[in-house]
Amino acid sequence: MINLVLILPIIFCVILFLFKNNTLNNILITLYAITHASLSLCYFIAPDLIKSNQYFSLNSSNVIFYLILSIVFLGVAIYNNGYSKNLAKEFTSKKMMHYSTMMLIFVLSMTGGILSNNLGLAWIFIEGTTLASAYLIYFNKTKHSIEAAWKYVFICSI
């Protein structure tokens, strides 16, 4: 089950890359948010049902962070439906696909960082959150957004 929550956004990113449709972007982000929230609630209620592996595990401390991430991501996904409709007026379908893909990669990285029980793997996932969110900061491609993205990468890398 832990592998499902980590593999599903990769599959959705491939689907987004192949079809490049704004409606599909919103559907897949919302579907992943509902799946993420449902699994986190299941993990919170019955953590003994989840089998850990050598790289990812669920314990009493990280299940709380995972549940908080799921609740916040579900709220973001719901808000994103209206927000991306406004963005779609300004940007192409390809650009919106990049936006949706980076959002999924960001949540994947956050989830991987929370669930990993290997320090090196956790560090890789946390750096993944930095890179994905740097693209989301730079999305508008203005002078101020590039400056903010570079400052963000610099501060997070330190």
Question: Can you tag this structure with a few keywords?
Answer:
single chain; 158 residues; mainly alpha
Describe the structure.
By secondary structure, the protein is mainly alpha-helical. The protein has helices at 2-19, 22-45, 62-90, 93-115, 119-137, 143-157. It is globular, with a radius of gyration of 16 Å.
Range of helix content = over 70%
Look at the structure and give the mean pLDDT: 92
Oligomer designation: single chain
Strands, count: 0
How many whole angstroms does the radius of gyration measure? 16 Å
Strand proportion: under 5%
For the termini, the CA-CA separation is 34 Å
Structural class call reads mainly alpha
Global outline: globular
Helix and strand string, N-terminal first? Answer: HHHHHH
Uncertain regions spanning at least 5 consecutive residues: none
Number of helices: 6
Biggest β-sheet description:
none
Lay out the secondary structure.
Layout: H1 2-19, H2 22-45, H3 62-90, H4 93-115, H5 119-137, H6 143-157
Helix pairs in contact: 1-2, 1-4, 2-3, 2-4, 3-4, 4-5, 5-6
